[in-house]
Design a protein that fits this description.
alpha+beta, Pnp Oxidase, Chain A, 7-stranded antiparallel sheet, 4 helices, 11 strands, 41% strand, globular, binds flavin mononucleotide
Amino acid sequence: MMQISELSSSYAKVHLPAKVALAVTQKPDGNYNLITIEWFMRTSIQPPMFAISIGTNRYSYECLEHSRYFNLIFPASEQKALLSLCGSNSGREMDKFSAGEVSSFPGKLHKLPVLTEALACFECEVVTQVRSGDHVIYVGQVHYSWLNQDKELFYYRDNQNS
Ligand SMILES: Cc1cc2nc3c(=O)[nH]c(=O)nc-3n(C[C@H](O)[C@H](O)[C@H](O)COP(=O)(O)O)c2cc1C
């Protein structure tokens, strides 16, 4: 029977399994940061666009206010540890590229790193943004996309194991 419920109980029932991504941004000092994100979506076919929702208390928010580019990375199935690292530590205190021993090469748009071991990468330029409560939705136009044919997509299936 449908009954009124707490949002947290309803959401816990519906949000898994989920795709989880990483967003690469540029720090004000010129280095790069990584954040784990579940709140992202494709928003336009032509031109191709993706939106990502970033909390205003995240270091990634500061980075995006400073430099208007992000790489949206779709992780490979074996990258669970990197998703945990980037989802539970802030770039204010940790260089996640070194801590996660991330291998990468410079992309073609703004030289933001493309992760060598990921499944796919979309190089985006922020074209608009919308405040959404305690997050900001950044809409990015995709300029270049990358695919690693040897990899499979990571799915976030279980709170305990991800
Ligand atoms: C599975 C998972 C999904 C997440 N999704 C988001 C998200 O969509 N947006 C967001 O702002 N933070 C999200 N977070 C939290 C950030 O990844 C986390 O706060 C991170 O430490 C922020 O890093 P930063 O301060 O370097 O930007 C998620 C965390 C996890 C573990």
